[in-house]
Amino acid sequence: GKTEPVKKAAIPKVRLSDVAGQENAKAEVGELLEFLRDAERYQRLGAEVPHGILLQGPPGTGKTLIARALAGEAGVPFFHMSASEFIEMFVGVGASRVRNLFDAAKKAQPSIIFIDELDSVGRVRGAGLGGGHDEREQTLNQILAEMDGFEGHEAVVVLAATNRPDVLDPALLRPGRFDRHVTLELPDLAGREAILKVHCRSVPLAGDVDLHKVATGTPGFSGADLKNLVNEAAMAAARENLTKVEARHFDQMRDRIMMGAVRTLAIHE
Ligand code: ATP
Question: Which residues bind ATP (predicted)?
Answer without folding.
Answer: 57-64
